[in-house]
Amino acid sequence: MKKTVFGGLCAILLGCTSTFVQAETLRLANHGQAGIDAMKSTVERIEKKLGVTIEVVEYPAPDKDYLSKLLTELGAGNAPDLFSMPSTAAVADMVEAGYLAPITSEINAWEGYKNFYDVAKKLAVSPDGETYVMPYMLGIQEIYYRKDVLEKAGISTEQPKTWDDLLARAEEIKTKTGAYGLLFPAGVSWGSGAFDEGFQHLIVGSKTPQIVTEDGKLDLNGEGVRDVFDVYKTLIDKDLMPVQPLLGPEPWVIPKYEQFPAGKLVATTCGSWCYIFDWGRESKNPIPDVTKVVGTWTVPGQTGGQFVLANLAAPWAVNAKSANVELAKKALLEIGSVETQVSYAARIGNIPSSKDAAGDPEFQKLTELVPIHAAAENGTFLKQAAGFGTVAEGVARATDALLRKEVDAAGAQKILVDYVKETLGDDMVK
Amino acid sequence: MAKTLQERRAERQLMIVLLPSLLLLVAFVIYPAIYSVYLSFTNEALTGAAARAPRLIGSRNYMRLFGDAKFWNALFVTFVFVLGSAIIGQFVLGLVSALALRRRLVFRSLFSSIILLPNAAPEVVAGFMWISMLAGGDHATLSRIVSFFGLPTADWLQVFPLTMIIVVNTWRGIATAMILLTAGLSTIPQEIYEAARMDGATPAQMFRRITVPLMMPTILLYMLISTVSTIAVFGLVYALTRGGPGGATELISIYIYNQSFTAYQLGYGAAVAVITLLVSLVLGIAYVRAAKVEI
């Protein structure tokens, strides 16, 4: 009897003790299987180092649906402690909404941040001067083209120097090979990609290369915006880019995963991830010897200059309403480690923001990405502002109308301006 | 007259039994509806400055709505969609199916199973299934059928988007119409038809003079249910077209979603939802009044 009572008391004591020493839990939002796999070792490392339990919450894969769900939860106050954002364009608005905890002092004091590329640091700074996101990965984008197809058809592989030069090359491709000459992502179905992977490439090299004024207003009535839409219009009217697949529900599948590998689409804007995820080692339809067969051009400016676009790729942030903001910030710094950067690079193909990645043996194995990483500092970007998420949706709607041949360039610009005015108010647009 | 103790106890028991349902209704229907009305007078948003500090803006959302061409387009698209798929498509095919199933058919069970089958597939699955049938390119089912007859193929959801969603929603709703109308048909006594037959009435006359008038309460009930539920259709059409191309299939439900969760303007989205609620309410009252018509 005494033994039973003693045993019972021990069990109660053990239960109480284990409750007291039970690790705190951080909830972490992730979406897409590749992203979840890339974070696996980081999650284990954070748990071990900080003595916490990490609960990974899987969200819907399409970026648009992911962002809607995340914003709804942030608004309701029950979002995870840490989350990534699918588009840089969403960050400024989320800062304005008060969803993100500032990490300026923590990230600047963190040893690992000193070796981040300046372009990543600049992209991470919000319009209010604070840093709210961990800019651990960069999306370095330019034009990817089928070198083998061009050489076989006797078409120059030289870097195009202006927009006219680029369009002439696309036309030559169409004439000599019958394949589509150039793709800029467009349309509503592509979501923020129409802005992030299409419109931005051209606007940075246009006559009005920035769309944010000094007082934070959106300058969308500029000549550059109309000229960018005119490039789309030319590509669509001359049948130089595939249109029908872009109007379907998963517009990237046919052009990126089928037509480009088959040589039926010869050039497209893309990021370094195309060498890994779309056509490389992680692809379901890989192109053999992808770096030899697929070459890159920088995006030429309207009348000259060369532009390589730099974006933050899925930057992570801390929920300002997290029950344990300080702990979440520590976990965020772990996500910024070189090890996590390399893990993401290997599975998705984005570029590590830390210069230290160059010395990592695992990263050295990613031979497709090493030269892009070395040149990452040269990236160009748009100055961020609140309302960019709305501009991205407006660009998607404007390019959708172009795809359906309902408007000309001026009409597309009007759709963009009207949408942004309707959503944000007349006074937000210059 | 004063209520007896027994009556008062019965009333109390009734209240206790109804209370859980009442609470659920208040929590999940009445309160959200009232809150939506409140939201519609604010600039509440899911992101940006308005998410941090929403404020009351009076009737600005409603003023904007009445001048918003896309809202009127969404209302028009919804009207055509309800008329085409619920009032004409589902009703006519549902009635034909119900009448057919009253007869002694050889494959009656098989026929009724086929009609019920669309309801077995979840709406998003059904949507994706129809995408594979209606997509552009030579491999899509409909394109293969028309090319077999030497006709030109098309990307049907792009070229005839509204017609296609009407067809798909009709396909999905025939079973509900059939079940309700079969129930209505079964209430008509066979003796009336026999008497009419003895008086020399033709089948067409019997249908017009007996079946339709006696089924009128059921028909109006079906119209009420199908109209209101078709106004609220979202998943099937969203999976098929996401409201595109260019708003051609942007039903009012998709418009509300786009305003609330794509543009993140909850206040404006709520204003559209309130107007939609009023439209449904007016239609509901009209049907209920019509259902009281004497035969």
UniProtKB/TrEMBL annotation, chain A:
<dbReference type="InterPro" id="IPR006059">
    <property type="entry name" value="SBP"/>
</dbReference>
<dbReference type="GO" id="GO:0042597">
    <property type="term" value="C:periplasmic space"/>
</dbReference>
<feature type="signal peptide">
    <location>
        <begin position="1"/>
        <end position="23"/>
    </location>
</feature>
<comment type="similarity">
    <text>Belongs to the bacterial solute-binding protein 1 family.</text>
</comment>
<dbReference type="InterPro" id="IPR050490">
    <property type="entry name" value="Bact_solute-bd_prot1"/>
</dbReference>
<dbReference type="Pfam" id="PF13416">
    <property type="entry name" value="SBP_bac_8"/>
</dbReference>
<keyword id="KW-0574">Periplasm</keyword>
<keyword id="KW-0732">Signal</keyword>
<protein>
    <submittedName>
        <fullName>ABC transporter substrate-binding protein</fullName>
    </submittedName>
</protein>
TrEMBL record, chain B:
<feature type="transmembrane region" description="Helical">
    <location>
        <begin position="71"/>
        <end position="101"/>
    </location>
</feature>
<keyword id="KW-0812">Transmembrane</keyword>
<keyword id="KW-1003">Cell membrane</keyword>
<feature type="transmembrane region" description="Helical">
    <location>
        <begin position="12"/>
        <end position="34"/>
    </location>
</feature>
<feature type="transmembrane region" description="Helical">
    <location>
        <begin position="219"/>
        <end position="240"/>
    </location>
</feature>
<feature type="transmembrane region" description="Helical">
    <location>
        <begin position="113"/>
        <end position="136"/>
    </location>
</feature>
<keyword id="KW-0472">Membrane</keyword>
<feature type="transmembrane region" description="Helical">
    <location>
        <begin position="266"/>
        <end position="288"/>
    </location>
</feature>
<comment type="similarity">
    <text>Belongs to the binding-protein-dependent transport system permease family.</text>
</comment>
<dbReference type="GO" id="GO:0005886">
    <property type="term" value="C:plasma membrane"/>
</dbReference>
<keyword id="KW-0813">Transport</keyword>
<dbReference type="InterPro" id="IPR000515">
    <property type="entry name" value="MetI-like"/>
</dbReference>
<dbReference type="GO" id="GO:0055085">
    <property type="term" value="P:transmembrane transport"/>
</dbReference>
<feature type="domain" description="ABC transmembrane type-1">
    <location>
        <begin position="76"/>
        <end position="287"/>
    </location>
</feature>
<feature type="transmembrane region" description="Helical">
    <location>
        <begin position="156"/>
        <end position="181"/>
    </location>
</feature>
<dbReference type="Pfam" id="PF00528">
    <property type="entry name" value="BPD_transp_1"/>
</dbReference>
<protein>
    <submittedName>
        <fullName>ABC transporter permease</fullName>
    </submittedName>
</protein>
<dbReference type="InterPro" id="IPR035906">
    <property type="entry name" value="MetI-like_sf"/>
</dbReference>
<keyword id="KW-1133">Transmembrane helix</keyword>
